[in-house]
Amino acid sequence: QSALTQPPSASGSPGQSVTISCTGTSRDVGNYDFVSWYQQHPGKAPKLMIYEVTKRPSGVPYRFSGSKSGNTASLTVSGLQADDEADYYCTSYAGNNNVLFGGGTKLTVL
Amino acid sequence: EEQLLESGGDLVLPGGSLRLSCAASGFTFSNYAMGWVRQAPGKGLNWVSTLSGSGGNIYYADSVKGRFTISRDNSKNTLFLQLNSLRAEDTAIYYCAKDISDTALVFDCWGQGTLVTVSS
User: Fold this and answer.
1) Are the Cβ atoms of B105 and A38 closer than 8 angstroms?
2) N or C: which end of chain B has fewer CB within 10 A?
């Protein structure tokens, strides 16, 4: 199975909103509400930001939100802050006890 | 505080073997599935394997099936990954990660990773 498709880069100015897309197929993103998003700063371990499309773990700011339409999931970061600059990865359950990752999106805060 | 600490990464020859360990603390280890995710240098994340809390359910990515073996010792709060028949493309940082429940395949706590380098 192929990885999920994410744009390699995204950017926004402080205070703005930015949306990162994650495109899969009807066998993964489109078939299950089990999309997650991870944030990874350089040299650091990933951090869970969103799971089950829209749920935020305790401690994740409300500025981070998730959504899904058809085979495409999205992560929106509102009120951009300097510390939001990081790589973001989406994942989706793909059936048969398998999970796919996206290729990652580098978010730059201008 | 939930913590995971990996060890065992090393430089190994193609075709060689290695055993990674992950020591867990700060949560009831046996209540949660645990997994391994790897990241090749400068590349993205890829799921490798997950093992349920009881050890009864085991899942592998196709790329490692038949070569890697995941296991756990709940009495010692430790997760393992045995890597056999290693290839250059297995070179990566291997992260140990805690599932949010039992085999949700969503990871809410990660270790800092251990580097495996496969090279002659």
Assistant:
1) no
2) N
Counted residue by residue, chain B has a size of 120
Contact call for residues B94 and B21 (beta carbons, < 8 A): no
Structure tokens at A98: 């398998």
User: What whole-number distance in Å separates Cα of residue B69 and Cα of residue B19?
Assistant: 9
The answer to whether A93 and A28 are in contact (CB under 8 A) is yes
How confident is the model over B51-64, as pLDDT tens digits? 999 989 999 999 99
Shortest CA distance from B111: residue in chain A: A45
Distance between CA A5 and CA A14 in Å, rounded? 26
Question: Which residues are CB-contacts of A86 (< 8 A; sequence separation ≥ 6)?
Answer: A39, A40, A41, A42, A106, A107
